[in-house]
Amino acid sequence: MDLSQLRKKIKDLNLERFKLEMEMINSLSRKSMLPGSVVEKYIICGKEGCKCKKGSLHGPFYYLTYKENKKTKMIFLKTAISKRAKVLNDSYKSFRKLRAKVSMINRQILALMDEIEKINTVSLSGIKEDG
């Protein structure tokens, strides 16, 4: 790519990043978020002769999983709050996806800037003495 193409690509990426950032700001101002993941689990209770021993597991039960000090933690979610937790968690995941896209665009812009730097960098032998 020549210099003008590189500049145009950076301009286009900046515009795309700006749109994503506006979407993120709007998301933050109108939605609460719940980090981690809401997971659905089915369990075997361990009672003798229970239907779960034959494959009809108990559940679903909902848990919030998250990392703390490099360890996965799980919090049981009562049925009354599990749906709201799921909605809040979905908002969090959407926000993080937008954030990842912005990060990717930033890396692309930096790579293009590196190309411009290479094009504009001259060696010492390329410098001419002033008159």
Report on this model:
The protein has 131 residues and is of the alpha+beta class. It has one domain. 53% of the residues lie in helices and 19% in strands. It has helices at 3-30, 79-120, and strands spanning 37-43, 58-68, 71-77. The protein has a 3-stranded antiparallel beta sheet, covered by helices on one side. Strand 2 (58-68) and strand 3 form a beta hairpin. Helix 1 packs antiparallel against helix 2 (79-120). The longest helix is centred in the C-terminal third of the chain and has 42 residues, at 79-120. It starts with a helix and ends in an 11-residue tail after the last helix. The model has no long low-confidence stretch (mean pLDDT 91).
Helix proportion range: 40-55%
Q: Helix count, per DSSP?
A: 2
Strand content: 15-25%
Taking strands numbered 1, 2, ... along the chain, how are they ordered across the largest sheet?
1-2-3
Question: Using only CA atoms, what is the Rg?
Answer: 26 Å
- Count every beta strand, where a strand is a DSSP E run of 2 or more residues: 3
Keyword list:
alpha+beta; three-stranded antiparallel sheet; 2 helices; 53% helix
In short:
53% of the residues lie in helices and 19% in strands. It has 131 residues and is an alpha+beta fold.
Topology (elements, then pairings):
Blueprint: H1 3-30, E1 37-43, E2 58-68, E3 71-77, H2 79-120
Antiparallel strand pairs: 1-2, 2-3
